[in-house]
Amino acid sequence: MSTSLISPAERGYIREGISTGIRNDGRSRQDFRDYIVNLDVISHSNGSARCRVGYGTDVLVGVKAETMLLDPTQPPNQGKVVCHVECSPSVVRRWDQRTADDLNNNLTQFLTRCLNQYGGIDLGKLCIIPGKACWVLYVDALVLDFDGNLHDALLLAVRGALFNTRIPELNVQEVDEGEFDFEANSDPEAAQPVPGWEKVPLCVTLNRCGEHYFVDATATEEQCTEAKLSVVINHLGEICAVQKGALGAIPHQMYADMIQSASHLVTQLLSALDERLQKEASTNLANQNGKHVSTFIRKNFH
Amino acid sequence: MSRLELLSPEGLRVDGRRANELRRIACKQSVLSDADGSAYYEQGNTKVLATVYGPCEPRNKGQALHDRCIVHVEFTVAPFSTSERRQRSRSDKRLLEIASGIRQAFEAVIISTTYPRSEISIYLHLLQDDGGNLQACINATTLALIDAGIPMTDYICACSAGYIDETPMLDLNHLEEASFETPDLTIAVLPRSGKATLLQMESRLPADRLEETLHLATEGCRQIHKLLDAAVQENTGELILKYANAI
Predict the structure, then answer these.
(1) What chain B residue is nearest to A82 in terms of C-alpha separation?
(2) What CATH class does B25-246 carry?
(3) Which residues form the Exoribonuclease phosphorolytic domain (chain B) (predicted)?
(4) Looking at the partner chain, which of A41, A63, A146 has a beta carbon nearest the beta carbon of B34?
């Protein structure tokens, strides 16, 4: 993805490390970098999270819930999820504008696919008045810093943000025969979590390098891989989406193996993430009386 | 009058501050790893992230100047930053205006002749908007430039002030800014010499009140300078410790 140059010697060194199973930073092929997920970063949104993988890749996701009047072209008893991913200009400066637009589009489509149809969120429950009004969840992701493995970081942050999201309660009143009116309850205690957030899938990207494949590539490692396979899997182990990236190909016999190990990794990743989210939410709650320290000012890694 | 009461009879504002009080400021340098310099700046609920790259070869080589560097500023607003979700295009005139204002202000303090034929890029992200974007951006940029080690003659500290109900008010928030007919003035000051590098005002203000309001804003800049300086010293202290441990 990156266009910066890498010398043949360095490429050889990294590939050698991958095939012997000890990478540049001491990880094995199946090891993830340490990551952090901070919740409630943006107080103006209904939910937000910032995910930072290693010291590099940094994704900020804000979720806004807004009511919308349904028009006849839409399904009458469903809400909507609208996704948008944007790489910050400081990230895209390594590419030209067109490559950056392509990347933004690809990531937006990828996220839309992951969240919309079988993405876990219960769209039926986002309907307010069938045929008239529904909730729209705007999931906006901002890539602040890049050091490889954007897809995985993106979905980690999105799951965190949806876990953190609270949708205000609505009081629906019948004003006239068949005519309804609704009003948001401003009490934050009455707000509800996103229906089905726990079913939102996670992604594991496997990078092929020779006969081996490895997870969580850094930006330099991504330059040495032949092909990437992003596998999106939910908590039941169902595969929700698969996307092959980068320029090379993946031999047929490798696929089954890759997908199997991806589903194994996602199960681990999911339980670890949910544990972190619960912990983070409880510390946030404890901090509410004291002063809330912003994620950018906190010392996250020790 | 049906207008929202911005100043209570007891002299308190909508968020409980007095007229001459700043919002809570929190800032930190070196928040991102990839950039040459970065800073996070928070003033009340307004949150800005600034990243600086450079000096490096200009991306558009035709723009290079033979005797000094060029400064490139880009300002983006996150769609979730405002209370209503709004997506802004890159060519939004309001954003371009802020970016060019910041560029002009900083071209005055960066010692640009040190880096001929090169470019310094400043990227600003508004993560949350609660009024006073311009001042927050300028203060964040100062921190990020210092973090990147770019030579400057002085800090630039910016502060806004307004004039509501016959009272000059420091550091307007979104509610105060958005209310009809509030004069809103932003000044950026070089704290050592006291000179202004940027001055913008919107709406009307009685001419004899300008002096008073300007004075209040400048006083705000002084306070902000102290806070920025403390953040820079803390960060430098940490850096020195890191180097000392590494040796």
Answers:
(1) B85
(2) alpha beta
(3) 21-151, 154-220
(4) A146
Instruction: Give the C-alpha separation, A152 to A146, whole Å.
Output: 12
Q: What are the residue boundaries of the structural domains of chain B, listed by start?
A: 25-246
Mean pLDDT by 10 residues, chain A (302 residues): 75 93 91 91 90 90 91 84 90 81 92 82 88 90 91 95 91 77 79 89 93 92 91 90 86 89 93 92 74 67 40
- DSSP reduced 3-state for B124: strand
Q: Is the pLDDT of residue B145 over 60?
A: yes
Residue position matching structure tokens 């371009």 = B96
Q: Assign domain A8-287 to a CATH class.
A: alpha beta
Cβ atoms of B99 and B75 closer than 8 Å: yes
Quote ipTM for the complex.
0.87
Q: Which residues pair with B74 in a beta bridge?
A: B123
Instruction: Give Cα B168 to chain centroid, integer Å.
Output: 20
Q: Give percent helix, percent strand, percent coil of chain A, each to the nearest 5.
A: 35, 30, 35
Tracing tokens 């190909």 back to the chain, one arrives at A249
Q: CA nearest B73 in A: which residue?
A: A89
Instruction: Closest CB to A45: pick one of B34, B51, B80.
Output: B80
Nearest to A203 by CA among A94, A51, A78: A51
Domain parsing of chain A, residue ranges: 8-287
At B199-216, the pLDDT tens digits run 999 888 888 999 999 999
The alpha carbon of residue B30 is apart from the nearest alpha carbon of chain A, in Å, by: 10
Q: What percent of chain B is predicted at pLDDT more than 90?
A: 68
CB B235 within 8 A of CB B174: no
Residue B40 has pLDDT above 80, yes or no: yes
What is the maximum span of chain A, computed from C-alpha positions, in angstroms? 76
Closest CA to B99 of B131, B118, B122, B132: B122
Strand extents, DSSP E, chain B: 25-29, 37-43, 46-56, 70-77, 119-128, 157-164, 167-170, 184-189, 196-202
Interval B111-129 mean pLDDT: 94
Q: Say yes or no for a CB contact (<8 Å) between A144 and B49.
A: yes
- Tell me the CA distances in angstroms from A211 to A7, A19, A225, B214, one per residue in order: 22, 8, 11, 68
Please say whether the beta carbons of A167 and A196 come within 8 A.
Answer: no
**B48 contacts B97 by C-beta, under 8 angstroms:** no
Phi and psi at residue A73, in whole multiples of 5°? -75, -10
Q: Which of B27, B33, B128 sits opposite A145 (nearest CB)?
A: B33
- Mean of the pLDDT values across residues B10-19? 89
Collapsing DSSP states into helix, strand and coil, what is residue A255? helix
Mark residue A40 as left, alpha or beta (left: phi above 0; alpha: psi -120 to 50; beta: remaining). left
Cβ A194 vs Cβ A162: under 8 Å:
yes
At A260 the pLDDT is: 92
Which pLDDT does position A3 carry in this prediction? 54
Shortest CA gap A37–chain B (Å): 15
In this structure, are residues A85 and A143 in contact, taking their beta carbons and an 8 Å threshold? yes
